[in-house]
Amino acid sequence: MFSGLEAPIVGLTGPPQDPGAPAPAPAGTLTASLIAGVLRSSALMLFLSLAAHCSGPQAKGLCPGGTDASRADLWASANRSQLQGFWCQPASQLPRDQLSALIRRLASLQVPLQAWQLGCLANLASRCGLQDDFMLHPPSLLLFYNLSQLRADDCRAFIRRATQGDLELLDHLPDQRVALRRAALACLVGAGPLPRLRASDLQLLGVLVCDMDASSIATADPHVLENLQCCPQLTADQRTALNSLLAGGRTQLGPPGSWTVEKLQALGPLATYISPHLWAQVQEAVGLGFFHSVVAACRTGRLSRHEARRFVSSFLESKAKPVSSGHRLRTGHITAATLQDDLFLVHYDCGQLESCLDSRVLTANLDPLLQHPLPAECQRVVKAKLTQIYPGGLPEAQLRLITSLVYLYSGAEIGQWNITSRDTVVALLASDVALENQTSAVLQKFLDHNGTVSSALLLAIGGARLCWMSPQQIQTIPPQELRLAGALDVSSCPQSRKDVLYTKAQEAFGSSRTPAAYYRLMRPYLGEPCPAPAHPRPVGGAPAEELRQLAQANISMDIDTFTGLNPRVLQSLDVSTVIALLGPNVGDLQKARSHPAVRSWLRSLSSSALGQLGLDTEHAGPTGSAHATSGLPSTTPQAPHLAHTSGLPGNAAQASTSGSLWTPLGYLPLAVALPSSLLWLLHWGTSGPAPHCSPGPCTLGSVDVTASGWLGSQGSGAGKTGLLGAAGCPLGMRGRL
């Protein structure tokens, strides 16, 4: 069972560990102490014993196809980190009662899941008839449910719970977001016009108010402020409506002249949107007291620097002229004690910062100075002074303090730095201000000093930084380090980077044992293919050949990944391939029909093809896309089915006669089994009939390995051969881990 331990362990780092979990190994290493530390965790020890129990035919009671009363407390004992590893395909093999227990466990532990996880989980829950138990489900999961199945009697309770979820998860499902808002308004007024929003209406709408237009906000009950506090950001029109509402004095704050520090603090981040015009009407002592609290909150990390700077800029603009009390603008040198004052930016403007701050005080107090939310003009003053002090480049010790200034430095200036520590790289790139040029320049200085891009570094700086590494830097990442880092989020990468990332990911993950394992790791990188001879430059998106192979393998692609595929490649796929590719998630096309990639593909289809998807062309055209043929029924997932290749028998429940089935995961090396986490391994690895729940099955079929071509030949060259595209690029798996 432990024969694969010496192989690189895919995805070992995974989700954040519990506080009591062993500390990670040094960057780029997989030591015996790390393995021993992992094995010491009670969760993994339980996994090992249960995986052994489930690895052979004797484990019929625990594996899919039956239930085991002795394991009924399995889901109740799962911890948060394990549940974050939720994966739809193995979860789809759970019996109905265990799927229900899993969803409730996710809710009770408030496990944060991503959109691609929640979308397919919602489809599983709907297929198994669990949607009516929505009050026991995670609020964010409700955002993905089929709203056409919502009963009128449940409308208010459903919407009230759903709006406690993270609405930003629906970014790739614009139609679902619109449908949710319409369903909420229908709960309030039926088919009539939207009236002035009352306090009770606002309580029901929750975060959906963030999608309301400015006029609805301006005329709403003053309690709308509580809703707006949940919005990640406000549009320009919404900001205007907010200031209009505050200026009218109808809110609990009263007119601006009566505001207090406590009332402003109760506004939370909304206070950072207050206009200079309103700040000019606030009592001076109140404004200064609130300024003090904002800077203190910024220093302790309770308020983001971006929000704090937004407030500071607006507040200082309102105080452009010195106030009568003399609090504004002081003279004299800036000292260490001056920089400790939270009202420093009120007393000294950027011009005085340049003339009153000497080099000695700056070098000794750089950290407390940069803890202030300096306006951009003041940041440029500080950078210019540092350049005068260190003409040959900043010392490495100072580099870790200037994260808020990195965006001001050119590649040539960064070229003067000495970066020898991974901690310095993390400090400079973990901030949200470094841009593309700064990212590649910082990494290059680290590489020039014999640094390596390890899995620990990749996890620390995040997948988004991969987007800004140069192609040459991406090529330097050892494949085993990318394997250890697991599936990073590279969705924001430009097309010019995704081709390099796709090739590098193939090196790291192309030898995965099963299509499911391959897709789990390659999913974020399916945005760019290897260039074919006829295309000197890659066209973007996973190759059509690979998508067809994934469709045959029943990987059940989530709609979040599907919308990220290259539209030009998507155009080459027929309806049957897309249905097989999405599997039980095919109904989600209705939720994303206005997404540019989906809309373009739908417009290319014939009426009969749209009919296969349950959509029509009533509103298709330049301003719309295909709609469901009857309400919103197409968000209901279709029954999972097996996509066959030649030589595969028609009965999905039967084993193929032309080759062996996928190896049960319990028989695989630990290197393959480990990343799937305890919960999912317990329910993989059976070739028997899948469990069913009324009215239909909750499971996916299995596929003949040899017939589908995922495993390489076991003869000569085993471990190297596999499906190749026209340019010799591997499609799917190559050999074994």
TrEMBL record:
Membrane is among the record's keywords: yes
Cell location: Membrane
Gene3D superfamilies: 1.20.970.40
Database matches in InterPro entries: Mesothelin (IPR010335), Stereocilin-rel (IPR026664)
A GO cellular-component term linked to this record: cell surface
Region (Disordered): 614-655
Superkingdom, natural source: Eukaryota
Residue ranges with Polar residues bias: 626-638
GO biological process terms on file: cell-matrix adhesion
Main location: membrane
Pfam families: Mesothelin (PF06060)
UniProt keywords, alphabetically: Cell adhesion, Glycoprotein, Membrane, Signal
Protein family: Belongs to the mesothelin family.
PANTHER family: MESOTHELIN-LIKE PROTEIN (PTHR23412:SF15), STEREOCILIN RELATED (PTHR23412)
Protein name stated in the entry: Mesothelin like
Organism (species): Cebus imitator (Panamanian white-faced capuchin)
